[in-house]
Design goal:
Elements (H helix, E strand, L loop, with lengths): L3 H12 L12 E6 L2 E7 L8 H9 L7 E6 L11 H7 L4 E6 L9 H8 L3 E4 L3 H7 L1 H8 L5 E9 L3 E3 L11 H13 L2 E5 H7 L16 E5 L10 H4 L6 E5 L5 H9 L3 E4 L2 E2 L2 E2 L1 H10 L4 E4 L3 H10 L4 E7 L9 E2 L16 E8 L2 E7 L2
Parallel strand pairs: 3-4, 4-5, 6-14, 6-15, 8-9, 8-14, 9-10, 10-11
Antiparallel strand pairs: 1-2, 1-3, 7-16, 12-13, 15-18, 17-18
Length: 365
């Protein structure tokens, strides 16, 4: 009998590592014998033991004849660690229950086939949707030429304004919403804003959750003409994350040199329609092993990202406030479609409450 509650437990373990395993996916595992969990573990950090190894080591001799529940198909190749399939064989596991298969088309199914050929029963697809959602950035990355999974986060009043006409925007949403956003920042490989947001807010772009260990994402600034001030927080505030300034190859060589001496990385991309080419940028970020990018820029960057078609997932926070005028800052800046039938449509949409705020989530691709 397959008990999905054990897979739920494995998924909960995997979620503990969100933000720490990239470019590997987060994976959880539990070992069950006679209806009792005798071992558990998860992949804690990139380069560390995989979830199966932690769970089987935790179970010890109790693993013999037991069932292993794991959120992702066990690997069957040598990488930074030996194949987990070999560990499973050596532990005398009787049965393996898998959440989802390895998304890599060149290796997916290989771990399952190996185990079945060795006489181990394998059941796949238990809580598949939950398992795939947990590693949706990794799945997108390996199936789409190593392009990052892009999340666009916005926050507005009920009438679609992100700030007043004077630029005042603190704070549209409440504390609970902002805490959740810091969790998303922690889980993302990088956070991206434009120079407009940089100059108006001077953000630090770090992940801060009281009482919780977090990891700062890489800070990516779109700055065509290198207008960033050298006392900007992303340059001067201590962080374990790098700051990447995306600019045009012809931007000031002198400013470029000064910024590099301050520790910033300068990344050149070409222009498309007079703006930095977001398609080229995504290719380069993927080559740098960024699985996920969180866009938190203002209306100009948000609108450009939608028009470029690079956004996978939208997180739209709406606060119970109304400015009641047309002079505030809009959610998206730039030309939209001429016809409603050409409007972007969210798939798999969901609604969540954060105190008084509403979060609309959905996928564009």
């Amino acid at each position: 009998m397959i008990d999905p509650e054990y897979m739920h437990k494995a998924l909960a373990l995997a979620k503990k590592a969100k933000g720490f395993t990239s470019p590997n996916p987060c994976v959880g595992a539990v070992v069950v014998k006679d209806g009792v969990v005798v071992g558990q573990g998860y992949h804690r950090r990139f380069g560390g033991p995989h979830a199966e190894v932690e769970a089987l080591d935790d179970a010890g001799p109790n693993a013999a004849g037991a069932t292993l529940y794991v959120t992702l198909e066990p690997c069957n190749h040598f990488g930074k660690t030996p194949p987990c399939t070999h560990k499973i064989m050596g532990s005398n596991i009787k049965k393996v229950v898998v959440g989802c298969k390895d998304p890599n088309p060149f290796v997916g199914g290989g771990g399952i086939r190996f185990l079945e050929e060795k006489g181990i029963e394998v059941v796949s697809g238990v809580l598949k949707e939950e398992a795939e959602t947990l590693i949706e950035d990794f799945i997108w990355y390996v199936r789409n030429d190593k392009k990052p999974f892009v999340i666009l986060k916005t926050a507005s009043t009920l009438d679609g304004r992100t700030a007043t006409r004077t630029g005042d925007s603190k704070w549209i949403t409440g504390t609970a919403s902002r805490v959740f956003v810091h969790r998303i920042r922690h889980e993302a490989d990088a956070i991206l804003i434009g120079s407009g947001t940089l100059h108006s807010d001077n953000p630090s772009l770090t992940a801060r959750i009281e009482g919780v260990e977090t990891r700062d994402p890489a800070r990516i600034i779109l700055d065509t003409h290198l207008t960033i001030k050298e006392n900007a927080r992303v340059l001067t505030q201590a962080s374990n994350a790098r700051t990447i300034i995306v600019t045009h190859p012809q931007a000031s060589p002198e400013k470029r040199t000064r910024l590099e001496k301050m520790g910033a990385q300068i990344l050149d991309v070409g222009l498309r329609d007079g703006r930095l080419d977001l398609h080229e940028l995504m290719i380069k970020l993927g080559q740098m092993s960024f699985l996920s990018v969180l866009i938190e820029g203002g209306g100009t960057v948000a609108g450009a990202a939608l028009r470029a078609g690079i956004v996978n997932k939208l997180l739209l926070f709406m606060a119970p406030r109304i400015l009641g005028g047309s002079d505030g800052k809009p959610l998206f800046v730039g030309m939209g479609p001429e016809r409603i039938q050409d409007a972007l449509e969210l798939k798999k949409m969901s609604l969540d409450w954060f105190e008084k705020d509403i979060l609309v989530s959905g996928y564009l691709k």
